[in-house]
Amino acid sequence: MFFKCSISTHSIVDLLKFDNMDVTSILDPLNAAQREAVSSTDKHLLVLAGAGSGKTRVLVHRIAWLVQVENISPHSILGVTFTNKAAKEMRGRLENMLGASVSNMWVGTFHGLAHRLLKLHWKDAGLPQNFQILDSDDQLRTVKRVYRLLGIDDSKWPYRQAQSFINKQKDDGLRSKNMPPADDPYQRIMTQIYIAYEDTCVRSGMVDFGELLLRAYELWSQNPALLCHYQQRFDQILVDEFQDTNAIQYAWLRLLAGDSVRITAVGDDDQSIYGWRGAKVENILNFNHDYPETTIVRLEQNYRSTKNILSAANAVISHNTDRLGKNLWTEEIEGEPISLYASFNEHDEARFISGTIDDWVKNGGMRDEVSVLYRSNAQSRVLEEALLRAQIPYRIYGGQKFYERQEIRNALAYLRLVVNRNDDAAFERIVNTPTRGIGDKTIEVLRGLARGENISMWDAVKLAISGKNFTGRALSAVQAFMDLVNKLDKNFSDLSLPDQTDSVVTESGLIDFYRREKGDRGQSRIENLEELVVACRAFEPDDAEQSALPQFLDQAALDAGDKQAGENEDAVQLMTLHSSKGLEFSIVFLAGMEENLFPHKMSIEDPVRLEEERRLAYVGITRAMKKLYLTFAESRQQYGTESYNTVSRFVRDIPTEHIEEIRLGGKITSPTSYAKKSVSQFSDEGTDTGLKLGQRVIHKVFGEGVILNFEGNGPNARIQVNFSNNGSKWLVQSYAKLEAL
Predict the structure, then answer these.
(1) How far apart are CA 375 and CA 48, in angstroms?
(2) Which of 44, 132, 331, 456 has its CA 20 to 30 A from that of 369?
(3) What pLDDT shows up at residue 207?
(4) Is 119 a catalytic residue?
(5) CATH architecture of 307-398+570-681
(6) Which residues make beta-bridge pairs with 371?
(7) 609 is catalytic
(8) Exactly one of 142, 271, 564, 646 is catalytic; which is it?
């Protein structure tokens, strides 16, 4: 259905409905910067909302201002959020302010609004009227069907790898038919899967989350009259968390805005931490270039944290170069200095954290006011163990306990089957993990034999092989699996517990399987498997007469059986730094503040990723309201080996006057020992050079590179540079003669 392009008119009923509102009630609760943002009459508005600066309040009050003062119909306003929770909160606040229902307003998430649009114009969008939305699990099942259709070996090309590839292309606005010619096997296979996947979805009338936005964009771009209708309908577009928009989301917004619709973009470039899943910080950095008639308002007054915490956050983020710039401040008290604890190892670190939390609770504090944040999921294991020993209830926010994670359960199942071939649960879990061509039909045959003969699945395999119940391919696959388990068992006799576990995660193919998954998810799974090996090294058997492996498996089962605290139970919250965004706590621990852990080893040599790591540190610091603890370990079992990392550069970014070093038996409020030594010995700025970490430099022999680290002082001080064509090198600073680019 096409619409004639004409200027929309505001309903008199809409305008009269809100005319009892007092304009002063909109502005009175706001500070000066918030009032400027709310009442702006400029064409476009970019609100740089610092952490804890009241951005949701500004969004709600701006909509109220547009309706009451500028006489804009609420039905001419499009409000875009990133989560259903945020959309619900915004609607609730609006109804309270406006005194009327806003259920008919277009306020929702990108995906929710795109779905609404496609439901209204399904025919123009080329969809069946009753099209179905695929969630992530449904999408994965569809990908698996495509694999079977194409005969693709999922042991070589994991399902989730293809799922991620498809979603990335859609987030970038690319259809399979628009994919560039592929020169490598990976690209060719993934494109082939994408083409077949799109065909399957079209035939079945299915739409995944990425398709919602891409299809909504195409609906407008291919139907100019329909686009014109919506451009005239919506006078105002307001977008929350603008720094998190990806390519297709921004393209969708720009298409709708055209040359006439006014945009209010609210976000914080310093909190853009989702580049790994497609968010483009460039969207907010370049907004005033894409829309020259833009006014920028900075919300810098923070209502959450103390002055010391904000000073630390400002100092850390100031080292990033690609930012629009702002400086958080508060009228709150100076507050306690930031506590820095240098632990001997990760177990000492965890004991310190659990002990400090225990003291907090004994002094009347609530556990749910405390959060422990970490860069890598694998760090949670030691922390969980310490909290369990101290009998401190905890929850993993947005995640699973260590021994409940998929990759850990898979590795433990291999170990269990080696110990006991009759463990049917372990057998079924790993017989086709990693995938080895053993299908559901084969498993069902084995189950039937096991039930009928009252034997284990393992023995059922032997029976099926002797009775020739399987085809040649299925027979070979099952026999290969049994040979693998038997080989592991044979090798175990001469191996220690950690070596047994390392053998399993390597020879089973689990490491390679998750490595092919690519991205942060695959890397996290590998780190968790490596952490399982570390757990085995630390394990102390109770019974010297019994093998360590079954004792370890019993302990792992008991740890997995200790359930997380319930939703309403007073409990400490453990979470990754990425999960913490948008939350706040009275007390925050940032654990593992070491080079190669945070910033992560995968990001240190990439200036763009390093800046995102620093934004992640900024987010973590600004979660703290009253007290912030930074902890690091002088040695750590990391990625399966003993590591000796220096203190994180993000700690070194913080001026020493804001830090107290905590030692067993006391505090040093003006740190002159380890904390100060760390800052001076490993300064972020080279002695008398003006060079800084992350800076691009040029060397007359090695060419261009990026500064990774400094070490020492005086004429023999060294500087580490990662050169584009010559790799990482340590150079004596006084002879290097590096020039800044």
Answers:
(1) 26
(2) 331
(3) 92
(4) no
(5) 3-Layer(aba) Sandwich (3.40)
(6) 573, 588
(7) no
(8) 271
DSSP 8-71: ----HHHHHHTTTS-HHHHHTTS-HHHHHHHH--SSEEEEEE-TTS-HHHHHHHHHHHHHHTS-
Strand partners, 206: 132
Q: 3-state DSSP call for residue 514?
A: helix
Q: Is 55 a catalytic residue?
A: yes
Q: Please list the ranges in the chain whose pLDDT falls under 70.
A: 1-22, 468-469, 561-563, 639-640, 664-689, 711-716
Instruction: Give the separation between CA 465 and CA 442, rounded to whole angstroms.
Output: 12
Say how far apart CA 524 and CA 398 lie, in whole Å.
15
pTM: 0.83
To the question of domain 12-122+213-299 being in CATH 3.40.50.300, the answer is yes
Residue 384 a catalytic site member: no
Q: Tell me what pLDDT residue 672 has.
A: 37
Domain 132-204, classified CATH 1.10.10.160, yes or no: yes
Catalytic-residue membership of 623 = yes
One-character DSSP codes across 155-189: TTS-HHHHHHHHHHHHHTT--GGGPPPP-SHHHHH
What's the pLDDT at 677?
A: 45
555-585 burial by CB neighbour count: b if 16+ within 10 A, else e? bbeebbeeebbeeeeebbbbbbbbbbbeebb
The one catalytic residue among 240, 244, 653, 684:
240
Question: How many other CB atoms are found less than 10 A from the CB of residue 651?
Answer: 27
Candidates 55, 215, 262, 421; catalytic one: 55
Active-site residue, 271 included? yes
pLDDT computed for residue 341 by the predictor: 96
The CATH architecture annotation of domain 404-558 reads: Orthogonal Bundle (1.10)
Per the CB < 8 A criterion, the answer to whether 675 and 656 are in contact is yes
**Residue 581 confidence (pLDDT):** 94
170, 409, 525, 623: which is the annotated catalytic residue? 623
Choosing from 43, 56, 609, 634, the catalytic residue is 56
Contact assessment for residue 581 and residue 621, using Cβ atoms and an 8 Å cutoff: no
